[in-house]
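We give this protein:

***
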Amino acid sequence: MSLSPDRWLSLLVKIADRVDPIALQYFRAAHLAVDAKADASPVTAADRAIEEAARDLVRREAPDLGIYGEEFGESQASGHARLIIDPIDGTRNFIRGIPIFGSLLAIEEARRITAGLVTAPALRQRWHAARGLGAYCGSRRLRVSAIRTLGQAQIFHGDLSGAAETPLPPGASALFQRVHRTRGFGDFYQHLLVAEGAGEFAIDPAVKPWDIGPLQVIVEEAGGRATTLEGAADIYGGSLVTSNGLLHDEMLRLLLAPAPPAGGPGRA
């Protein structure tokens, strides 16, 4: 099965329409079932229900499409394309009643993401993009910022010290001191803010392909860059940094620089 990018987006919209009510049904429910996976990360009944609903819709609407999901793994099909799905990105937010969570949907063809959609039903927002067709939040076209100096830049990041998160790279502290402002949104939302031009750089030191899928194409179609910490545009590289493109290489270099010795200068 091979569709044009806009047709793939139509399928992703159908999936989002199907799963949004499920997410909202479970969000802030009085007795939400939460389990721990093998890696100690949480999974809820909502995660499973959303992915099951998405898989059921794909079986009916696009039976040749493979599926690679966070909760139920890979289901191969006869076509060369597959849906990559994170049913709830920001599960810990979801569990605590924080509305910054979303379902991440992407179409991968020949190891390249060609279309992606993020739906955040508690925020009542969706972002989408397809190769060559631009990136949007609803009907609003997205553009990354034009800021090109560290002193004006805003950086987004996740948890700085919690036991549940992977530590940021060694140069993060020194880099943070050189920019105008930092904010810890974490998860998918920080990368969408980069695509919207609300910040210049976002850092995820440890992610899986389903955490990245739609974010890569949305940021790139907004004019930015999405790579690993090593600079590769690969959703299988285990990390994600997004930027407006103008500061990408400089920030990666500073981010990966060795931390200064204890008691040494805090700035490079």
